[in-house]
Amino acid sequence: MSTSVHPTALVDPKCELDDQVEVGPYSIIGGEVRIGKGTIIGPQVLIEGWVRVGKRCTIGKGVIIGAPPQDTNFEGKRSFVEIGDGNLIREYSTIHRGSKAESTTRIGSEIFLMAYSHIAHNCTVEDGVVVANMGTLAGYVTLEKKVMVGGLSAIHQYVKVGTYSIIGGCSKVIKDVPPYTRVDGHPATLWGLNTVGLRRANFSPKKRELLERAYKILFRSGLNTSQAIKQMENELEPIPEIRHLCEFVKNSERGICKEKRNAPL
Questions:
Q1: Are residues 134 and 204 in the same domain?
Q2: Is the pLDDT of residue 13 over 80?
Q3: Each residue of 28-72: pLDDT tens digit?
Q4: pLDDT confidence of 1, banded at 50, 70, 90?
Q5: Which residue among 64, 135, 144, 224 sits deepest, i.e. has the most Cβ atoms within 10 Å of its Cβ?
Q6: What's the CATH number where 95 sits?
Q7: Residue 189's beta-bridge partner residues?
Q8: Tens-digit pLDDT profile for residues 216-260
Q9: Which of 119, 140, 161 is at the close of a domain?
Q10: In a domain, 166, yes or no
Q11: What is the pTM of this model?
Q12: What's the CATH number where 232 sits?
């Protein structure tokens, strides 16, 4: 199957479209854009600036990718958006390019951005993430792999959300979310481990038990963060998940979400 461009679409001759790319009606593709094999671009899509889109992505109606960042310090210099393979980007989502010169907004692979999602400048969204309708990421947010963001949630700039965690709908996230946990609320607070998500991801009973012990040490032992991390490192088997949790908390710059009182585990 050859590349297909609808007659009403405006595609800059310098744009690179790989084999089997489809461009829908009234879409506009700029000259610095590169689109990978098998990607389908719906109607009324705008992709401008220095953008790389991988293979087998599906981009819905009205999506905007590569627009200038909403940053008052933006100087109009070259910056980038890089998008991986197999992503589903639903209608009217927006992904802005980096703010500083030569910086990049990075989207991984196998990601699902539901309708009206917003990924601001310089965000990093790792593989397997799901952002539900109207989920909003401010600048420099990091979502580690397999994060789930509930609809109508907003994540403050520079926040980091740990792998396999889940954010409840309509949450206001202003602190870092530890890996493997669930948060909800306004502002978001911890509601224990993401037990359902961990089971669905086939985490073994042993790993879940170790993460439960780690959670209790971190948030229910009465120890400060440094003491809790030291106890975790001394008492728990150093499986990759425990090591990652320790490093995540240790390196947090915005601080970690607090636990909701009487939260279930």
A1: no
A2: yes
A3: 999 999 999 999 999 999 999 999 999 999 999 999 999 999 999
A4: low
A5: 135
A6: 2.160.10.10
A7: 184
A8: 999 999 999 999 999 999 999 999 999 999 999 999 999 999 997
A9: 140
A10: no
A11: 0.97
A12: 1.20.1180.10
Partners of 106 in the β-ladder: 82, 124
Q: Write down the residue that tokens 């992503």 correspond to.
A: 87
154 inside domain: no
What's the rounded Cα separation, in Å, for the pair 96 and 51? Answer: 10
205 contacts: CB under 8 Å, gap ≥ 6: none
Same domain membership, residue 135 and residue 217: no
The mean per-residue pLDDT over the stretch 87-94 comes to 98
Q: Which domain holds residue 118?
A: 4-140
pLDDT of residue 260: 79
pLDDT at residue 263, rounded to an integer: 73
Quick check: is 228 in a domain?
yes
Number of domains in the chain: 2
